Model the fold of this input.
Amino acid sequence: MISQTLLEKLLELRLPAFREGLREQASNPQYTTLSFEERLLLLVELEYSRRTDNRIQRRMKLAEFPMQATIEDLDFSPERGLDRRLVLELAQCNWVEKALNVLILGATGTGKSFLACSLGAAACRQGFTVRYLRTSRFLHSINQARQDGSYLTLLHSLNKTDVLILDDWMRDPIPISAAQDLLEVFDDRFAKTATIIVSQVPVADWHARFPDPTIADAILDRTIHSAYRLSLEGDSQRKLRGFRTMSHT
Done:
């Protein structure tokens, strides 16, 4: 019989998993065959596992991924041109610790965003903070921050984020003010934090899409020269999923 005082103390100490495990041990006679240390170890491991899972879920929620994606769910079919060895290496997140970048390239629908979210989720599981942003909305948020006086606060927040994912990179025209803001962001993060850039535009065309060649030089110098590249090929994954759905109806 467990005293109510002990259960209340465990609740005050914020040990809910430990508390639940203790109740389970008290009601299950199978645990009586274990030593005190063995039972205590089970309780500690239960609490540790619960806290680890909770931290991962908090990081996943703060990342605001648009989809649930994991490395385990990736399709490494040969026609996609995805380097399995490199992807699995990136999933270990050493590149994050080294403040390097990842460029994910390919045509519309080839699964670039899914791959980016998979790597982002892997980083969350490794203890890193992640933020997923679509570039057009990101630039709009920066512009709003300039107007409402929270610009420096936003830059500081981005600088503290271990992995920044910018999707739909170069999809829309970039005005000069937005290019200057991007330079501020990349300048703050350079050699300190990691970035994933997702684009359907070839890297060779990026420079010409900036409104100012000097700013283009500065941004590209901070992004492409210290980056891994993953190029996706093949048909649109959305189209293939549509065909599979129709074939089963």
